[in-house]
Amino acid sequence: MPLLRCGILFTAVSLPGYLIHSAAGSTEPAEADAFLAQALEGGPVIASGGLMRYWALVPPSAVDGWTDPASECLTPGTFLGVPPIHRKTHQPGLSYWSVAMDSPAVLCSTGIVSRLSRMGQTRHRAQFEREGA
Question: Which residues have CB under 8 Å from 89's CB, separation 6+?
Fold first, then answer.
């Protein structure tokens, strides 16, 4: 898998899978992918093969003000594994484009990614409280 260096043209926000699945209301890959495409307005997202982590590609300036403790904005110089551009569906064990990149210049909005993370945290907490009650 090729590695791309974060910090010049883009960086990535690393989001735990449980946040994405809670926000999407589903652990089914196709449903989570469709949710992400809509929620992030078509911004590119990479998913790990085990669906334990998602990376939303954002402008490199995102790292300067990232404060969300539930996710991590990759710092300049960090290398991100990028799946082949044709791999657009979940295959166990292989990372893939959960939301494919339409153009190298199109990235996710930092604000929308932050709101998505907060939504996932809120929904996850509510689910935990329901199941624990």
Answer: 29, 30, 96
DSSP for 74-106 reads PPTT-EEE---TT--S-BTTB-EEEE--S-TT-
Per-residue pLDDT of 21-51, as tens digits, reads 999 999 999 999 999 999 999 999 999 988 8
Q: How many C-beta atoms lie closer than 10 Å to residue 45's C-beta? A: 27
- What ranges in the chain are assigned the alpha helix state H? 17-24, 29-39, 62-65, 110-132
- Distance (Å, rounded) from C-alpha 60 to C-alpha 37? 21
- Say if residue 37 is exposed, middle or buried (CB neighbours under 10 Å; 0-12, 13-18, 19+): middle
Joined together, the tokens standing for residue 121 give 């945290």
What does pTM read for this prediction?
A: 0.93
